[in-house]
Specification:
It is a single chain. The mean pLDDT is 78. This protein has a 3-stranded antiparallel sheet with strand order 2-1-3, with no helix packed on it. The longest helix is centred in the last third of the chain and has 18 residues. Helix content is 22%, strand content 18%. With 80 residues, the chain is an alpha+beta fold. The protein is extended, with a radius of gyration of 17 Å.
Length: 80
Amino acid sequence: MAYGDDRQVASVVAGLPAGEAFVFDDTIEHEAWNDSDEPCAVLVLDTWNPAVTPAERVAVTQLTAAVGEFYGELPDFSAL
């Protein structure tokens, strides 16, 4: 176990075993932190939940685009 690498999903807090992967649905309230002196890498993949219908996917995609057009482009934080 890499001490200091922890996650909380809903009300459950658990350590992250070094060298092991896990997957969870991030639509549930969650957070993660690294209090250790070791680096911690996180790979985030956005995928559709299989329970979302094709019509709902279209609606969410259109709504997201409309919100983006209303608020404009976000600042480029990649240089930070």
